[in-house]
């Protein structure tokens, strides 16, 4: 079993390779393990990321087949099916690291801010389900000075939304709480920069290291 901290190191190193535009041999070689993997998997990290086409977890962390258990949904929100997916992987595969991976200029955050400012009501019921998940984490920011600084507002809103998802996973599931308390499960928040390609593990990654 790969510990949470070992898993974090692997992701960090993989992201450094991605930024440097080099591929590790492990990700490349993993394709030769396809048949072997057909009988079972042991992903070393669970990633809850945004669906944005520019932030595919396997690529930005330079990982291969069987390495990451990835859940993607616009705005990296946490609804029951996301919690269930994380519980499933953490219990069944003994994966000990969960990363909520948000990113700069996230469209779900921009849409929610737009909705908070103008309340257009133009979103479908289904899209509204996403906006409504994001809203509680960021609406308070509009009551601060940030409302006059659009760029800073988006930056802070992206991070606040990631923190809210991390918090939900840490405290919104008995299964995960138990795994955190007894089995060393770690839930961290990270932000990917579209500009630099770097992933900043800003929430929960440096404790106990
Ligand atoms: Zn996004």
Can you describe this structure?
With 209 residues, the chain is an alpha/beta fold. The protein has helices at residues 4-19, 25-29, 34-37, 57-60, 80-92, 107-118, 125-138, 150-171, 174-183, and strands at residues 45-49, 68-72, 97-103, 186-192, 199-203. It has a five-stranded mixed beta sheet with strand order 2-1-3-4-5, sandwiched between helices. The longest helix is centred in the C-terminal third of the chain and has 22 residues, at 150-171. Zinc ion binds next to helix 6.
Q: What is the topology?
A:
Blueprint: H1 4-19, H2 25-29, H3 34-37, E1 45-49, H4 57-60, E2 68-72, H5 80-92, E3 97-103, H6 107-118, H7 125-138, H8 150-171, H9 174-183, E4 186-192, E5 199-203
Parallel strand pairs: 1-2, 1-3, 3-4
Antiparallel strand pairs: 4-5
Question: Summed up, what is this model?
Answer:
With 209 residues, this protein is of the alpha/beta class. Helix content is 48%, strand content 14%.
What proportion of the residues is helical, as a percent range?
A: 40-55%
Summarize model confidence as the mean pLDDT. Answer: 94
Treating each run of at least 4 consecutive H or I residues as one helix, how many helices?
A: 9
* Largest β sheet strand count, sense and barrel closure: 5 strands, mixed
The quaternary organization reads as: single chain
How are the strands of the largest sheet arranged?
2-1-3-4-5
Low-pLDDT runs of 5+ residues are none
Q: So what's the overall shape? A: globular
- CA radius of gyration is 17 Å
- Structural category: alpha/beta
Bound molecules: zinc ion
DSSP E strands, number: 5
Strand content: 5-15%
What's the helix-strand series?
HHHEHEHEHHHHEE
**C-alpha end-to-end distance:** 18 Å
């Amino acid at each position: 079993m790969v510990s949470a901290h070992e898993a974090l190191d692997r992701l960090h190193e993989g992201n450094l390779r991605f930024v440097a535009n080099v591929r590790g041999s492990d990700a490349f070689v993993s394709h030769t393990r396809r048949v072997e993997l057909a009988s079972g998997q042991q992903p070393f990290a669970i990633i809850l990321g945004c669906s944005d086409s520019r932030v595919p977890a396997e690529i930005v962390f330079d990982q291969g087949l069987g390495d990451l258990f990835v859940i993607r949904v616009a705005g990296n929100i946490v609804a029951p099916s996301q919690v269930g997916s994380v519980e499933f992987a953490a219990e069944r595969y003994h994966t000990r690291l969960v990363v909520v991976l948000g990113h700069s200029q996230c469209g779900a955050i921009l849409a929610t801010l737009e909705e908070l400012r103008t309340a257009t009501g133009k979103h479908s019921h289904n899209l509204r389900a996403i906006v409504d998940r994001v809203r509680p984490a960021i609406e308070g920011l509009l009551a601060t000075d940030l409302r006059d600084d659009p760029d800073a507002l988006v930056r802070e809103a992206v991070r606040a939304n990631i923190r809210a998802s991390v918090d939900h996973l840490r405290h919104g599931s008995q299964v995960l709480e138990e795994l955190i308390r007894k089995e060393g499960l770690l839930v961290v928040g990270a932000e990917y920069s579209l500009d630099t390609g770097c992933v900043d593990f800003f929430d929960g990654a440096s404790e106990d290291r």
